[in-house]
Design goal:
Layout: E1 3-7, H1 11-23, E2 27-31, H2 34-43, E3 48-52, H3 60-69, E4 78-82, H4 88-96, E5 100-103, H5 108-124, E6 132-138, E7 141-147, H6 149-236, E8 240-245, E9 251-254, H7 256-262, H8 266-269, H9 280-296, E10 300-308, E11 314-325, E12 331-340, H10 342-357, E13 362-366, E14 372-375, H11 377-383, H12 387-391, H13 410-417, E15 423-427, E16 433-445, E17 448-457, H14 459-512, H15 518-543, E18 552-554, H16 556-571, E19 575-580, E20 588-590, H17 592-608, E21 614-625, H18 627-633, E22 638-647, H19 677-687, E23 691-697, E24 701-709, E25 734-738, H20 742-754, E26 758-762, H21 765-774, E27 779-783, H22 792-802, E28 807-812, E29 831-833, H23 838-850
Parallel strand pairs: 1-2, 1-3, 3-4, 4-5, 19-21, 25-26, 25-27, 27-28, 28-29
Antiparallel strand pairs: 6-7, 8-9, 8-12, 10-11, 11-12, 13-14, 13-17, 15-16, 16-17, 18-20, 21-22, 22-24, 23-24
Helix pairs in contact: 2-3, 3-4, 14-15, 14-20, 15-19, 16-17, 17-19, 21-22
């Protein structure tokens, strides 16, 4: 009895395969994975192995390879279970030495035939025949296949057999599908024919039925249409419609409007006379009028006819009556139509009252002629025309000449477009122009189509709205400039610290390498570049209104006289310079060096705007601003000295005027300017409490006015930084250096010690206070802006409480000079701004220690 080993991780699949084999008389052993199968083979040999390919741990290919490479099991045939989805499965099977494939799902009979054929092939093979190896390249990969020729043939034959079987099943399916398609087409043709026959029969029946229905319904439909039409006419007549019997005056018809007006149900009204429904005097009046109409045989009207109603009191009706005659011309019925004019009469009275007494100008004009039909007292008062003048004029007469081509009927435009905010311009009798919003309503006036107009004067409101828009524009511009100022000020702070370290270290290197040839020249060039960067940084700080200012009372006329020669050399000989000063020009409190820089910047801009020459005029004058000027110039009312710089250059386009004060914005060609000149002027003047106004016209030139606040009262003595002279060194003083930037702190210590000072460092104000409590110092040298919640100002205040004779000197790259300082250095304060040269540090130290 052949023994078969099944290797299958699926218990269900293994059980099914075992049942099939045992039913055919085979002895079966089952392993759940490759490792377990190898153990069973070592215990007892088998005649054939059936193994799944996809198993955990060890695949069927690996298991087969181990079986075929072991001498004890190499001759055992191996069947691999596979779906044969890819040709690579066959190559892998050959490579690992498999004898055959079995395709899932498999037919039991096909399985047994394959198994018996494999066992028979094994029986007839020559024992001990050598295997041979071949190299195969398939799908771009190289495989080495080592097996007996019969084994390879068996594997290929099994694969071919599976392919043939699958092809036959496919052909069989195609044949059945073709037969089904033919049968389906035959059935569809039969069904279509039956549907056509049934449809034709139903169509004939439907035509007959429709003909019968049409015939029967024709008369009924015509009757319903006629009745519905008459009922609709009666019920929708805009007023009370009634019909009386001409012989006895009894009502035979009353429409819904009559029922609602009188408050009497129709069923209680029909068949009654007027005397049975209305008060006696009203009934007599109605009867007399009815008799007059019937006698005359023509249409007659009662303009105002009072009628008593059940729920709405006495109403006023306008009634028209006419007789309805028979074929012989005798009156058969009396037809009446009444219109309730109660509200109209009340509205007419109210309208007249409201029209005459309304404080808003109102008028009625004729739609066809546009002539005024009526005007109220407010229109007469507001426009200045008499009532007689108004009634002799048309709408076109109150329009400005330039607006007379507008639509002649403004109310028609308003009524069609639905625009309640349409603004029109009108002329008053004295020539004033009013802007008005009109509100219109169509009406019939004295039998003609007319318009009722209310004209609301919005002149002042529109002016206020325009001023508000201009104020919002200025606010937006100011907010943008403030945001730019904060940004540039923050950048300038960081750059000042960096430049301070660079300049200070270059100064030290230059001293140590003095006489060093090219090295000293390179250091000089680096110093010049760093100092140019510092100058740009000062301009940024000026725009940001964060530069430290040292103001003093300045005579601007004298300052212009002193820099006149410098300005002439700056602008060149092609440009004519004139300086006109006003006698008794008010003094201003300002930083003189910064003001000189501003005027020089403006002169340079003017020179660049006149490449072919021109004229530059600088003049001064006094001006006192009022509250009205305050709105236009963004300045508080008061006294100002004006410096006006006017050129005849190319001018600035209007669309760029709002940007000229922005940093790095320039109208010059690339490489011709930094774009910081006007921004520096703007920032400095605004920081000094003034204002800059720029006017320009392309081709005609530019005018810049500096509004500088007048100096009033007695000003404290200003501390003015001086320079020059020999390097001033120490006299053995002890200096406490407080700086949070470690690099700057090291630089200061190095410079101080080279100047002969004894120096001690502290990285923050709290550390400095601990040192001040422990020992005495001659000078406190502190940065202003530091982390930790305590500024240099705060530190100096506490330090002076500890040592009243302590000298103090401040340094800063971004001086925050206090909430109320506006950048003004307090009187008597010694301030050194970053970046600074070693000479400036030495000079300031002596100034602070000797004060």
């Amino acid at each position: 009895m052949p023994r078969v080993l099944i290797v299958e991780d699926s218990a269900t699949q293994a059980e099914r395969l075992a049942v099939i084999l045992e039913t055919e008389g085979y002895e079966v052993a089952v392993a759940r994975n490759g490792k377990e199968a190898l153990r069973l083979l070592a215990e007892q040999p088998v005649d054939v192995i059936v193994s799944d390919i996809l198993m955990p741990g060890m695949s069927g290919y690996d298991f087969c390879r181990k079986v075929k490479t072991a001498p004890a099991t190499a001759s055992i045939p191996v069947i691999l279970l596979s779906t044969l989805n890819e040709p690579m499965d066959i190559i892998r099977g050959l490579e690992c030495g498999a004898d055959n494939f079995l395709t899932k799902p498999y037919d039991p009979e096909h399985l047994m035939r394959r198994l018996r054929a494999l066992l028979e092939s094994k029986r007839i093979r020559t024992p001990g025949r050598l295997s041979f190896g071949i190299d195969v390249v398939f799908l771009g990969k190289e495989f080495t296949i080592t097996a007996e020729k019969e084994q390879i043939v068996d594997l290929l034959m099994s694969t071919f057999e599976d392919t043939v079987r699958a092809n036959r099943e496919l052909e069989s399916g195609r044949a059945k599908l073709a037969e089904a398609k033919i049968e389906l087409e035959r059935y569809a043709a039969t069904l279509e024919e039956r549907v056509k026959e049934r449809t034709a029969e139903l169509s004939r029946l439907n035509e007959a039925l429709q003909a019968e229905i049409t015939t029967r319904a024709a008369a009924e439909a015509e009757l319903r249409r006629t009745r519905a039409f008459l009922d609709a006419v009666v019920e929708n007549v805009p007023g009370v419609l009634f019909v009386k019997n001409a012989a006895d005056g009894r009502f035979v018809l009353l429409n819904r409007a009559g029922e609602e007006l009188l408050g009497i149900p129709r069923e209680k009204f029909i068949g009654k006379t007027a005397h049975e429904i209305f008060p006696l005097d009203e009934a007599n009046r109605f009867a007399a009028h009815d008799q007059a109409v019937l006698s005359a045989g023509t249409l007659q009207t009662m303009p105002e006819e009072p009628v008593s109603t059940r729920h709405r009191g006495v109403r006023l009706l306008r009634t028209k009556k006419m007789p309805i005659t028979d074929e012989q011309g005798r009156p058969r019925y009396l037809l009446g139509l009444s219109e309730d004019i109660t509200e109209a009469k009340e509205q007419e009275a109210s309208f007249q009252l409201l029209f005459d007494g309304n404080p808003v100008p109102m008028w009625v004009y004729d739609v066809e002629t546009l002539r005024f039909c009526a005007v109220n007292e407010a229109a007469v008062s507001r426009y200045g025309y008499t009532r007689e003048q108004f009634l002799s004029m048309s709408l076109l007469d109150i329009r400005p000449p330039e607006d007379r081509n507008a639509p002649p009927d403004p109310a028609a435009h308003w009524l069609v477009q639905g625009e309640t905010d349409t603004v029109w311009r009108h002329l008053t009798a004295d020539g004033r122009r009013l802007e008005v919003e009109i509100f219109a309503r169509p009406l019939v006036y004295q039998g003609r189509s007319a318009r009722l107009i209310a004209a609301i004067d919005v002149t002042e409101r529109r002016r206020a709205e325009a001023e508000l828009r201009e104020a919002e524009r200025k606010l937006h511009h100011a907010q943008k400039m403030e945001a730019l100022g904060q940004l540039t000020g923050g950048l300038a702070h960081d750059f000042n610290n960096l430049l301070g370290i660079i300049v200070g270290n270059l100064d030290i290197l230059k001293e140590r390498l003095r006489g060093g040839g090219d090295t000293e020249e390179l250091i000089d060039e680096s110093l010049q570049a760093a100092l140019r960067g510092a100058d740009l940084n000062r301009r940024l700080l000026a725009f940001a209104r964060r530069q430290p200012l040292q103001p003093k009372v300045v005579d601007v006329n004298e300052l212009l006289t002193n820099i006149g020669n410098l300005l002439r050399r700056t602008i060149g000989e092609q440009i004519e310079l004139t300086v006109s000063t006003t006698r008794d020009l008010w003094p201003v409190r300002i930083d003189p060096s910064q003001l000189e820089a501003c005027i020089t910047n403006l002169a340079v801009n003017a020179r660049d705007a006149m490449p072919k020459g021109g004229s530059l005029a600088i003049q001064t004058r006094n001006v006192s601003l009022t509250a009205n000027d305050e709105k236009q110039l963004e300045l508080a009312a008061g006294d100002y000295a004006i410096v006006e710089v006017q050129d005849t250059g190319v001018g600035i386009p209007g669309e760029l005027l709002n940007r000229v004060f922005e940093p790095f914005f320039t109208t010059k060609a690339a490489g011709k300017g930094t774009g910081l000149g006007l921004s520096q002027v703007f920032g400095f003047v605004k920081q000094s409490g003034g204002h800059v106004k720029l006017e320009s016209e392309v081709g005609r030139g530019t005018t810049v006015r500096l509004y500088l606040p007048r100096a009033t009262g007695v000003d404290a003595k200003d501390v003015v930084e001086t320079g020059g002279g020999s390097l001033q060194t120490s006299r053995g003083e002890m200096v406490l250096v407080v700086e949070d930037n470690a690099q700057m702190r090291r630089l200061l210590l190095r410079q101080l010690r080279e100047l002969g000072y004894r120096a001690v460092e502290a990285e923050d104000p709290h550390s400095a206070l601990r040192l001040l409590r422990a020992q005495r110092f001659d000078l406190l040298l502190t940065d202003i802006v530091m982390p930790g919640g305590m500024s240099g100002w705060d530190l100096a205040g506490e330090a002076l409480q500890l040592h009243t004779d302590l000298k103090v000197m401040f340094i800063s790259g971004f001086p925050d000079l206090g909430n109320d300082s506006d950048g003004q250095v307090p009187a008597g304060c010694i301030l050194l701004t970053k970046p600074f040269r070693k000479e400036s540090l030495a000079e300031k130290l002596r100034q602070a220690l000797d004060s």
